[in-house]
């Protein structure tokens, strides 16, 4: 059994894998060699380096482990045609991303950007527009593992949490649930609107100017899922029209955000360069899921964690 990694775990992690699975041949290559992929049974990747042409020539490939939650850059149709199993690391982002999201919310609520600017200007000013989280309403669009963790922490601050997904079915730590079709009705009630949606045909450009226009003028809009969930020119228009107080953006339609993009200079936008999930524990948690699944794979157990429905893309 040949297992090809297209990223490099640290040397100790590589040794641990080799020792735990002595009958497997591990190959660590960044970038990976296409000839090696042709003979690999399992491919472990972040997902952005795999093309349709690779699938066509990888005749032995049976399982792709994606060390990321997003799959939108992968050739899913070609993978499905070959009936190759795909798993990912859904769930490992919840701690670092929840911490990042809460840090941004508290920073805005407690006027930390203004306080920092005053310090740079050596200005002693108590004229800051701080407010409380207590009693606020947060609308969390995409209330999966990350959204549930954010909601759990927000509830500790006395925030009312509303989850929104395609079905309206219940999700953890949500005081109430709605479906996508009810989004227009609840947006005017929310003080924080957080999108953690994946990129799918159903979610692409889900948020339009009309959605932003019906939000509270004091609301914070946050996108920490995928950039194409938002139609960027319509968000820009809404920000110029002051349809909301702030937009906190960790993801964008085109990354990296171009140098001359208006978002860089706007006072009511916080640009986070897709770093909310960064953590020293990222690879540790990813490998933990992989090793559990590899043990099941070797045993012939097909009930593996985070199996992907390739038709849905998640």
TrEMBL record:
Q: Which family does it belong to?
A: Belongs to the D-isomer specific 2-hydroxyacid dehydrogenase family.
The signal peptide, as residue positions, is: none
Q: Which residues form the D-isomer specific 2-hydroxyacid dehydrogenase NAD-binding domain?
A: 102-276
Matching entries from InterPro entries are given as: D-isomer_2_OHA_DH_cat_dom, D-isomer_DH_NAD-bd, NAD(P)-bd_dom_sf
Which GO MF terms does the UniProt record name? NAD binding; oxidoreductase activity, acting on the CH-OH group of donors, NAD or NADP as acceptor
Which is one Pfam family of this protein? 2-Hacid_dh
Give the domain of life: Bacteria
Protein name per UniProt: D-2-hydroxyacid dehydrogenase
Give the PANTHER family listed for this entry: 2-HACID_DH_C DOMAIN-CONTAINING PROTEIN, D-ISOMER SPECIFIC 2-HYDROXYACID DEHYDROGENASE NAD-BINDING DOMAIN-CONTAINING PROTEIN
Source organism of this protein record: Psychrobacillus glaciei
């Amino acid at each position: 059994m040949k297992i090809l990694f297209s990223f490099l775990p640290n040397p100790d992690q590589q040794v641990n894998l080799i020792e735990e699975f002595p009958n497997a041949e591990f190959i660590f290559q960044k970038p990976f060699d296409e000839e090696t992929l042709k003979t690999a049974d399992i491919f472990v990747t972040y997902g952005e380096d795999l093309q349709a042409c690779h699938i066509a020539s990888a005749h032995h490939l049976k399982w792709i482990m994606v060390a990321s939650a997003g799959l939108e850059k992968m050739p899913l149709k070609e993978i499905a045609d070959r009936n190759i199993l795909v798993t990912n690391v859904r769930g490992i982002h919840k701690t670092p991303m929840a911490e990042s999201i809460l840090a941004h919310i508290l920073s805005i609520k407690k006027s930390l950007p203004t306080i920092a600017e005053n310090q740079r200007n050596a200005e002693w000013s108590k004229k800051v527009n701080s407010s409380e989280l207590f009693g606020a309403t947060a609308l969390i669009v995409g209330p999966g593992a990350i959204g549930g963790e954010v909601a759990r922490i927000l509830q500790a601050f006395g925030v009312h949490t509303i989850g929104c997904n395609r079905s309206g079915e219940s999700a953890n730590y949500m005081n109430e649930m709605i479906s996508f079709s009810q989004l227009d009705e609840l947006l005017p009630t929310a003080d924080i609107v957080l999108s953690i949606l994946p990129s799918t045909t159903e979610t692409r450009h889900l948020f339009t100017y009309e959605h932003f226009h019906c939000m509270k003028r004091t609301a914070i809009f946050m996108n920490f899922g995928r950039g194409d969930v938002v139609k960027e020119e319509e968000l820009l228009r809404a920000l110029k029209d002051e349809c909301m107080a702030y937009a906190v953006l960790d993801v964008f339609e085109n990354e990296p955000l171009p140098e001359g993009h208006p978002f860089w200079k706007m006072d009511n936008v916080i640009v986070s360069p897709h770093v909310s999930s960064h953590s020293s524990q990222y690879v540790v948690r990813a490998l933990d899921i992989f090793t559990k699944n590899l043990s099941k794979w070797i045993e012939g157990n097909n009930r593996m964690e985070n199996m992907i429905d390739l038709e849905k893309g998640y």
